[in-house]
Amino acid sequence: MTAEFDPRRLADLVRRPLVTEKATIVLGDNKYTFEVAPNATKPEIKAAIEDLFDVKVVKVNTQNPPAKKRRVGKFAGERPHYKRAVVTLAEGDKITLFPEV
């Protein structure tokens, strides 16, 4: 059962790849970490990654971390909300995050 998604909306779901120490470690397991829109669902994330990078996604794990409090002088607020998606790719597939120049 494959759901049809609007390809114009799918491109806006994936915001950027996250390059942290933990994300770099799991690259060896063929897992890639992305920042996605907070309202994105797992099937939408899977379809977006497969469409954007032409790879086969096996699994999608998501996290909704709590907003962090920030203060600038007398103004208190929160950092922008985001959602983290860890995408596991099929054997043999890979995404080039840093193209060689």
List the helices and strands and how they pair.
Layout: H1 7-13, E1 14-17, H2 21-25, E2 31-36, H3 42-53, E3 57-63, E4 69-72, E5 75-78, E6 83-89
Antiparallel strand pairs: 1-2, 2-6, 3-6, 4-5
Helix pairs in contact: 1-3
Structural class: alpha+beta
Uncertain stretches of 5 or more adjacent residues: none
Number of distinct helices: 3
Query: Into which percentage range does the β-strand content fall?
Result: 25-35%
> The biggest beta sheet, please?
4 strands, antiparallel
Q: Please give the oligomerization state of what you see.
A: single chain
Order of helices and strands: HEHEHEEEE
Which fold name is given in CATH as the topology? Alpha-Beta Plaits
In short:
By secondary structure, the chain is an alpha+beta fold. Helix content is about 25%, strand content about 30%.
Structure characterization notes:
- The chain has 101 residues and is α+β, with helices and mostly antiparallel strands.
- The protein has a single domain, classed as RRM (RNA recognition motif) domain (Alpha-Beta Plaits, 2-Layer Sandwich).
- Helix content is 24%, strand content 32%.
- The protein has three helices and six strands.
- It has helices spanning 7-13, 21-25, 42-53, and strands at 14-17, 31-36, 57-63, 69-72, 75-78, 83-89.
- Strands 1-2-6-3 form a four-stranded antiparallel β-sheet. A two-stranded antiparallel sheet has the order 4-5.
- A hairpin with a 2-residue loop joins β4 (69-72) and β5 (75-78).
- α1 crosses α3.
- The protein starts with 6 loop residues before the first helix and ends in a 12-residue tail after the last strand.
